[in-house]
């Protein structure tokens, strides 16, 4: 276990610390049922707020307790912060008093400003930070995520690095990784993450995880060359080509960006058929028809039209590469023409 002491940070010489115009706060044990809420600037209870209160009552723990902040007014003790905590306390049958921080704010404007300051001047805890805390607390799901990431060679950061300068293997996609483990198991999640680590992505994003999982599990993408996938993804990521093509593909076909990214990666990482008549280095079509520079060499006929779009054949329901207007892959178009 490592600790660090709280220490002052360096400030510029011209920096002038603020001086409070009010007295230091005091703490008192208070019956939560006497606390008041000014509805001029405090929000009413939402369904999410009510759910939070029920959870707080059901999981009450003084170690997690944050004292509400209140101010003494002519009407009584008025809350500035801690409405949910106070309602949870008064709802809990075993709680009679709670510690309350009492500050000075004589006017409504002062209290409203204090409310804004308390809720604004804080840094929200990120999903990644909560993950690391959950690992330290021994949460089984968080521990599983951490172990899979470590085994795959990925590094789960606590937050975004300065200036957004991520390094290869870095990731903040905790939720996506957890969802993948829950859906497909640790082995599949480890495989997906290991390929993305080998691809040198910086960072490994949620859409990367979802796209590669789709490629490894959907029958339509069975022709993916898994061994070549890391180098293919690395080269496309280095030029930004994958993201550009995925964005355009997603907008054109009205599909999620991660699905479009899967199609873009697949097009570049399909297996090359040994002994085929295709030109050297040219990607094959879904049904193995010869291709030249990524295009089917045969002219349009029937429902088939050559092109560079990923389409699904209306006859065999398989993916093929053709024109945006194409409705049939080349083999099915041939069969349809012969039958006619």
From TrEMBL:
Species in which this protein is naturally found = Kaistia soli DSM 19436
- Could you identify this protein by its name? ParB-like nuclease domain-containing protein
The UniProt annotation puts the region (Disordered) at 274-304
